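Incident log, support desk, overnight shift.

02:14 A customer reports that sequence design results differ from what the structure should imply. Their input is reproduced verbatim below. On-call engineer (initials T.W.) acknowledged and began investigating.
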């Protein structure tokens, strides 16, 4: 996240970059919106946790489809994060680092990379076209989260506790055409099966040792 020791000029430049990104995505029809700024939350036993960004406005669903010139006004003033609503223009599948890397390798091998977002907490987001179907093989895995209708995801350059959200594969690589959800599902299912086979083999080798 933005360091408290950063000069005001750096902070201002970061907010300008985030606002410019929001406006650019809005012009392309992406339903972007401002999110909350990361802040510590004190829990039981004085434990400090960090909450992921959520929509800054309670009526965020009503704001989907707002014109870019209006979106520009949302990102003036106080620090905010950049979110995009899922379920209308795009969906996203959130996975852990290991599965993300394996799936990215498989996508590269096909010559059809998908836009991929990396979060500072080690999570990956694979962006797809909108779909109302999600494979049971993926839905049954506790480490996989499907962002579809009534959800949202953070986009670069949203600040987190220890870093900034960034693109692993930018939408420009895909020519701003999102990959079909079924194609990405297939790759993730294959990657998941490969990881599970590797884990099983390691367990057998460990038991035999």
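02:41 Re-run completed on a clean worker. Output:
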């Amino acid at each position: 996240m933005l360091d408290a020791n950063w000069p005001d000029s750096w902070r201002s430049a970061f907010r300008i970059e985030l606002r410019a990104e929001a406006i650019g995505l809005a012009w392309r029809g992406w339903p972007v919106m401002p999110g909350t700024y990361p802040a510590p939350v004190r829990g039981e036993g004085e434990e400090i946790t960090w909450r992921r960004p959520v929509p800054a406005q309670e009526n965020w669903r009503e704001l989907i489809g707002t014109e870019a010139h209006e979106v520009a006004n949302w990102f003036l003033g106080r620090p905010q994060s950049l979110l995009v609503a899922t379920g209308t223009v795009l969906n996203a599948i959130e996975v852990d680092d290991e599965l993300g890397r394996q799936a990215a390798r498989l996508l590269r091998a096909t010559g059809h990379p998908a836009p991929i977002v990396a979060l500072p907490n080690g999570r990956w987001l694979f962006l797809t076209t909108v779909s109302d179907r999600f494979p049971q093989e993926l839905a049954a895995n506790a480490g996989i989260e499907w962002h579809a209708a009534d959800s949202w995801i953070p986009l670069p350059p949203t600040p987190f506790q220890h870093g900034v959200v960034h693109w692993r594969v930018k939408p420009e690589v895909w020519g701003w055409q999102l990959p079909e959800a079924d194609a990405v599902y297939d790759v993730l299912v294959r990657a998941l099966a490969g990881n599970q086979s590797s884990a099983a083999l390691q367990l057998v080798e460990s038991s035999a040792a």
